[in-house]
UniProtKB/TrEMBL annotation:
GO molecular function: heme binding; iron ion binding; monooxygenase activity; oxidoreductase activity, acting on paired donors, with incorporation or reduction of molecular oxygen
UniProt cross-references to InterPro entries, sorted A to Z: Cyt_P450 (IPR001128), Cyt_P450_sf (IPR036396)
Protein name in UniProt: Cytochrome P450
Coiled-coil features, chain-numbered ranges: none
UniProt keyword Repeat, yes or no: no
Pfam hit, one: p450
UniProt keywords, alphabetically: Heme, Iron, Metal-binding, Monooxygenase, Oxidoreductase
Residues of the signal peptide: none
UniProt cofactor(s): heme
Membrane-crossing residue ranges in chain numbering: none
Amino acid sequence: MLWYAEVIAAFLCFLFIWHWRWTKHLPIINWPLFGMLPGLLKNALHVHEYTTRVLKHYGGTLEFKGPWFTDMEFVFISDPANIHHILSRNYSNYHKGPKFREVFEPYGDGIINSDFDSWRYQRRLIQSMVKNNKFESFLEKVSRGKVESGLIPILDHMSSTGIEVDLQEIFQRYTFDNVCFLVLGFDPKCLSIEFPQVAHAKAFDQMGQSVFYRHVVPEICWKLQRWLQIGEEKKLRIAWKFFDEFLYQCISSKREEITRIKAQKMEEANFDLLTACIELEQDEEGGEMDGSTKSNKFLRDMAFVLIGAGRDTISSGLTWFLWLVTTHPSVEAKILQEMREHLLVNNEINWDIKEISKLVYLHAAICESLRLFPPIPFEHLYSIDSDILPSGHPIGPRTKILYSLYAMGRTESIWGEDFIEFKPERWIS
Ligand code: HEM
């Protein structure tokens, strides 16, 4: 028996060394049993740089294999032709699907979790909400107010006292206040010198963290935790309940406010997105959807998606943008020069949105920052039927597709040899 065990062990060692020697030049190795997961875990701390390198090696498309006991298999893409095929040319064959909705459960039936008719309906609704003139002036008022009375005094205070702060935290507080005000008409006042602990913001953070957790652990683990109501899933349930109570409270007070304003034939003081949504919904043929309960759930999902979509994207985008500008003094000088030319009137800043939209160089610098550090570095979808990508890769039905916006922003064939440099000029033709 011992002799057999020795022979098997020697054979396995031989196979392991042979496999390692054969594949060691590859940026990612498909190990027996464990698939490509070890490579990903080893590089977890710089996963975006690593996957960019791997995708480059495989020409922008890789069939990722996970451990045999999980269903961690997906096609990973940064090839623009393949991404265009999925998101545009053959979009009807790709959807978010039930697995996506399960992971993003707190988003309910909001647009981020929707496909087909529901997606189209909500997209139309959001477009008409944000294009509403009253919302545009509310947006201008809120954004300017938060910068002048919140952000600038805090940054001034930090700079005069020389206190070291985490700029990302300041921007998170700033965007949470901004986005809650714009969506719900309620300012949670997270942005203040005392850095208060605001329960709504904490609950929202917890929900984001738990959704992220569902992305990184095998499905069976988080589902078991959800069933047993332990660990991260228990924290999610508590935060979710708390945040929902807050949202439903905002919705019912908003409904009362709108009825009161209409009865008194007054103009809304705050034309937030919730107001815009309730008004549009009431104006639609047939009035409310099918009773106020369903309608409240619809408004809850809409509000949650807009807060979720607008919060961390903007704060992450602002943080990277500021970091890039401060580490590139020539870009900073050009932005300041352009601002002086267009916005400075009698030594006062004119915040008019029409004047701000003339800042071409600033716009280019923001695009360049989003290219290098996209706040949503990758996205995923599922195929419905089989398909063939422009690169020739076959796609089976119900296949998970992950596309990397981070890697695409750093592809030499798109952006040129200097793709790694922060050069706003590349956006100005
Ligand atoms: C730097 C800021 C932002 C970035 C980088 C960003 C990025 C993205 C990306 C990559 C998507 C996915 C698109 C797709 O699936 O095709 C998306 C979807 C979406 N974003 Fe943003 N976003 C930003 C800010 C915002 C803001 C401020 C809002 C609104 C409050 C918002 C609302 C949405 C909505 C509603 C969707 C779903 C659209 C759909 O499925 O058609 N985003 N965003």
